[in-house]
UniProtKB/TrEMBL annotation:
InterPro entries: LiaI-LiaF-like_TM1. Keywords: Membrane, Transmembrane, Transmembrane helix. The chain crosses the membrane at residues 12-33, 39-59, 66-89, 95-114, 126-150, 156-176. Residues 68-110 form the LiaI-LiaF-like transmembrane region domain. It comes from Leadbettera azotonutricia (strain ATCC BAA-888 / DSM 13862 / ZAS-9). The lineage of its organism: Bacteria, Pseudomonadati, Spirochaetota, Spirochaetia, Spirochaetales. Pfam families: LiaI-LiaF-like_TM1 (PF18917). It comes from the Bacteria. This is Putative membrane protein.
Length: 185
């Protein structure tokens, strides 16, 4: 029994190490072809590996949506860093893309909510939508797509932010009522 258990662990470990080596070799090969620094490729690789490990924890642990949230976030951030390391995303605009953190957070809430409830619930979808919209709006200001500054937007349109906060609370309230009604049946 113990030898079968140790064989399974050895097989799983060799499979995992093999995948790591394949991915790391491919990352460094692409990095060397693009003439990038090894540190930026290694950083992107480590972030992707953290996402893969968290995804494995999310799959192994039943209903652990927090691991899936961080797994999705780290995978998106790692691939973004990898594209930046390969100069697919030019370095001169890299510093302007900081609002993608909000977009990645919103997109990572979607599989986390699905994993937890098995369906789309407003408890996860409403904040996910808010994070994505906020990130896209901040990207528009970061890339100077709009003709006015973020400060000017806040000074003129602050009541709209209050209205959006109210809309978010109404959506969460309706979702809580619907889920409470489903549990009563």
């Amino acid at each position: 029994m113990a030898s079968m258990f140790s064989r399974r662990i050895a097989a799983w470990l060799s499979f995992f190490i093999g995948l790591l080596l394949m991915f790391l070799g491919s990352a460094f090969l692409l990095g060397s072809l693009a003439g990038t620094s090894k540190f930026s490729v290694l950083l992107a690789f480590l972030v992707v590996i953290a996402g893969i490990l968290l995804a494995m924890f999310a799959i192994k642990m039943n209903k652990s949506s927090i691991y899936l949230f961080f797994a999705a976030f780290f995978l998106m951030a790692g691939f973004f860093l990898f594209l930046s390391a390969l100069n697919v995303i030019p370095r001169d605009i890299f510093y302007k893309t900081w609002p993608l953190i909000s977009v990645f957070s919103g997109l990572a809430l979607v599989p986390a909510g699905w994993r937890r409830y098995g369906t789309f619930r407003s408890r996860f979808m409403a904040p996910a939508l808010v994070f994505v919209i906020l990130g896209c709006a901040l990207l528009a200001f970061s890339f100077d797509i709009v003709g006015f500054s973020f400060k000017q937007f806040i000074l003129n349109w602050w009541p709209l932010l209050i209205a959006f906060a109210g809309l978010l609370l109404v959506l969460i309230s309706l979702g809580a009522r619907n889920s409470a009604g489903d549990q009563d049946r």
